[in-house]
């Protein structure tokens, strides 16, 4: 909701925007959570330097408008599963 350029009052927004916002909220929150984990892992040194450089380079490209998508972080699926995070493979 913080990215909608209209009024700060969601009650004045078009219904389509409210529906889209509600539908995307879980995905946005998950994405922001993963970004926070990535930032923490970079800060505490628990990632390999090569991966840190790739992620930071991707962020730099995004900030300069040279890249359309954020870099996809690499996660240890076994560690996530051990922590109780459900893992579902999506076939394309």
What layout of secondary structure does this protein have?
Blueprint: H1 15-44, H2 49-63, H3 77-82
Provide a descriptive summary of the structure in words.
With 92 residues, the chain is an all-alpha fold. It has one domain. Helix content is 55%, strand content 0%. It has 3 helices and no strands. The chain is extended. The two termini are 29 Å apart.
Helix fraction bin: 55-70%
- According to DSSP, the number of beta strands is 0
Question: In angstroms, what is the radius of gyration?
Answer: 17 Å
CA(first)-CA(last) distance? 29 Å
Q: Which outline best applies?
A: extended
Which stretches of 5+ consecutive residues score pLDDT under 50? Answer: none
For the largest beta-sheet, the strand count, sense and barrel status come to: none
User: What fraction of the residues are assigned to beta strands by DSSP?
Assistant: under 5%
By secondary-structure content and strand pairing, the structural class works out as mainly alpha
Order of helices and strands: HHH
What is the residue-mean pLDDT, rounded to a whole number?
78
Number of domains: 1
Describe this protein with a few key phrases:
single chain, 92 residues, mainly alpha, 3 helices
Describe this structure in a few short sentences.
The chain is mainly alpha-helical. It has helices at 15-44, 49-63, 77-82.
């Amino acid at each position: 909701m913080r990215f909608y350029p209209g009024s700060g009052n969601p009650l004045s927004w078009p219904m389509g925007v409210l529906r889209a916002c509600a539908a995307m909220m879980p995905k946005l929150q998950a994405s922001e959570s993963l970004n926070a984990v990535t930032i923490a892992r970079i800060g505490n040194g628990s990632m390999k330097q090569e991966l840190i450089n790739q992620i930071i380079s991707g962020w730099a490209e995004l900030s300069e408008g040279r890249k359309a998508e954020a870099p996809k972080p690499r996660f240890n699926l076994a560690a996530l599963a051990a922590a109780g995070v459900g893992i579902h493979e999506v076939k394309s």
